[in-house]
Structure formats: structure tokens, C-alpha cells
Amino acid sequence: MKELLLIAIGSALVNNVVLSQFLGLCPFLGVSKSVKTSAGMGAAVIFVITIASFATSMIYKYILASEFLHLEYLQTIVFILVIAALVQFVEMFLKKSMPSLYEALGVYLPLITTNCAVLGVALTNVQKSYNILESVVNGVGISVGFTIAIIMLAGVRERIENNDIPFTFKGSPIVLITSGLMAIAFFGFSGLIK
Amino acid sequence: MVTGIILAAAVVGILGILIGVFLGIASEKFEVETDEKELLIRNELPGNNCGGCGYAGCDALAKAIAEGEAGVGDCPVGGPDVAARIGAIMGVDGGTSEKKVAFVKCKGTCDKTKVQYNYYGIDDCKKATVVPGRGDKACTYGCMGYGSCVKACAFDAIHVVDGIAVVDKEKCVACGMCVSACPNNLIDLVPYKAETLVQCNSHDKGKDVKVKCEVGCIGCTICVKQCEFDAIHMENNLAVIDYDKCTNCRKCAEKCPVKVII
User: Fold this and answer.
1) Helices A35-59/A75-97 angle, 10° precision
2) B98-193 to CATH, choices 3.40.50.620, 1.20.1560.10, 2.60.120.200, 3.30.70.20
């Protein structure tokens, strides 16, 4: 239990996926214009990463790393395939059985196919040789970390909008500087787990 | 070596085929029937997703119309044309909705209205209203010219010219976004045909208006006396035109001493 808690906190705060591993930067910068949309994106990411880390670790354990095949080097291509299909399937499933959730997640669900954080989680799980339960916990932790980071950035950006910024810094530059400062702040967590 | 390559290709290939088949079956099983009408209506709507109808976007409005929650003429942007075509899809009469445009009730350009102090704050009307005196303009009812309405407009139809917002009548689609954006409630939707309009929003007494602005309505009631059709009235020191009764005879505009009726 202590192990799992450490993995969850470690991946959510200490090794925050965006701010210290620099994965998933595209949605982090692209969909962080308002708190509402970034919360939607965060919810969709939590949903997909949790399922994806379960599915990929199952496939890795029982197919790629099985005794007969030993095809560990295929992990990247197979994981991409599985994640893309999974997102498609989740979208179909939600549309049919949970239309309200489908509408809440909206356009962010298909966007996640190209979120490299999802693939990043799957590969990290393999690298650190987590078992299936640990992989799922790691996935939840990482996606919660992503949600925290994107909502915080969106909150900052909403305030930036109304401020007097030098012309050269308008748009992406000020956002990149902001996220850099946030990343420095997040390094404060690095002493949390030894 | 060769077996390794074949094995790898086989595993990825089989996995791909399995996933493909699985997705194919799933898409059949989880197919959601969308209302045919909804798609047709969606095609007729302008697709700007401006939100002027009060729904989340054109998709949401199309759904609401198809389900009968919204009326066929609820898209303010499309106007009567779109209403008629959607009406044809839904099998009801589109009705006659009058084309409207946004109108800014202020004529106080930089040279006409006095300024009470220099404002160096955030370039936004909503922020300026919280400053004591409601912005730098002496008149607290008028246009502050920081362009909250310009930011709200998705159709490039409103611009700040010489310190006041001016609507481009041809580009305006009457979505009403600027109306809700203006903290002074200065923008109205008026009939496109209306040519006689009161371009002032000040409820101050005549003497106070005179001090602050050269082109404010002073509430002299000359226009009310001029009107033969009972179309113009004084409401709280401000002339208000009833567009249903107004015939655009322009008698009030001619006699207005401050030329605030255009």
C-alpha cells in the first residue's frame, strides 16, 4: 500500500509529467486558454491514461514479454496501435452508453490519441518494470499531475490575457516563460520522496 | 534471424487485424442513431458557433430544433432565410422575423465629451467600470471606447472609431454578443430598417449632460412634441423611440437642438 501511494504521489507531483518530464506539451500549451476547457482536457486525459496503462501493461506482460515471443523491442509500435484503438473504442462506447460524459469530454477525447503523455506512461511502466496494479496507479498519478499542471497554467493565462504585456512577449512566448517558471516551482517537490 | 523478423511482423500484423476487427464490431454495436433532421438543420445553420442563440453552438441548436425545444427561427445570425429553410425541414412555417442590427447609443467622440481624468489601467471596459467615476469619460452612461464589444464580436462588425464603438451595419448579424459584453448596457438590437435613432444613453438632467457632453440628450422634449405618430417618448430624461410606430419622417431629428437623433 505504501509503495502504491509513493508511486502515485511521485508521478503526480515529484515527476510531474509536463513540468519535469516535458511530455504532453502540445495539449498543455494548446488547450490551456481557459480553466473550463483545460479541466475538460484533464478529465479526458485521466480517463484515457488510466485505461491505457492497464491495457498496455496487460499486452506487454502476456504478449510481448511472454516466454515464447520475447518481442520487447516492439513495445513502442504496439503501444501506439493499442492506444489509438483504445481511444477510438472509448469514444464509441461513451457515445452510446454515457452520452452526458461524452458531451462533457467533447472534442478532447479524440485529441488525446496524439498526446505523447499517454505513450510516455505506457513506456515508463515497462521501463520501471511495474506490475499491472502499479501501472494503473502510476497512470492515475501521472494524469492527475497533468490535470493539475494544465489547470494551473490556464488560471495563470486567464490573468495574463488582461495584462499589459510587451508586444514581443504576446502569445506563445509569455506562456512558455510562465510554464518554465511553473516547472521551476515544481522542482520544490523533488525533496518529497527520497 | 529470419524467424525473428517473421515473428515480429506476424505479431504486429495479427494484433492490428484483431484490433481492426474489434473496432469494426464495436462500431456496429455502439452505433448511435443521429436524427436525420438534425444533420440537415446543422447544414443550414451558419456554423460560426457564436452562441447568439443561447445554445453552446450550432450543433447544440440543431439538436434543440430537431427535438422541438428551440424554434426554427432561433438563429439570430441566419435571419429569415435560414429560418425559412429550417422551417421547410421541420415542416413548419418559418415565420417572419425582422432583421436586426446592433446599435451603439453614444455619440460622444473624443472631441465631444469631456474627460475627467487620465486612465492608464487595463484596456477593457469591464475593468474600467470599477474605477471611481466609471472610466475616464465624464459621462458615466456613455461609451468608454476600450472595446470589450470589439473583442466579443466574432464577425468583425464593431470597431472603436474616435473613442466610441461603431457598428458596421452590413457585417452585423445581431447575435447579441456585444450587447451582453457592454458593461454600460449601451448597445441595443434595433430593426435594420430603423433610420431614426436616439444616439444617447444618458439619464442625467439636461444641465448635467450639457456640462459633460456636447452631443447628449438633454431631455428637452422638443422631439416628443414634434412627433405626429406618438412614436417618441421621454423615459427618465432620455428620448426613446418606439420603432413599431416610427415612420422615419425625421421631424424629430430636424428639431433636435443637440442633434442627438440621427
Assistant:
1) 120
2) 3.30.70.20
